[in-house]
Amino acid sequence: MKTILLSTVCALAAPFAFAQTSTTTTEQTTTQPVTTRETTTTYTAGTIDTYEPSKTIIVKDDNGGPVRFALGTAARIVDGAGKIVTAPLRSGQKVRVYYTGNGDTRTVERVQVIEDKD
For the segment 25-45, what is each residue's pLDDT rounded down to a tens digit? Predict the structure, then answer.
């Protein structure tokens, strides 16, 4: 009788002892649309009217009108060979100002000092 009772208990406990659990993980990914922004670099050539380091530069362009530019922290001042100019810019100096934006949002990328050919 003990063996029948023991066999019955083992038979009832076996499914729980060998039961396996499974876990399902679902991962959802979303793709964001790619946004591209095209910027155009333009330049204006003329002579310096006013220069405030790290702030603004005003250039009288070839048409005689003053054009105001904001000098960002990344703005570089270079010579015709592309070498950095360390001397401060002065009024009357010929330059070519490369910038992005338009109107009140013109931001200088670089100022190229144009040397006079005497």
Answer: 667 767 777 776 666 778 999
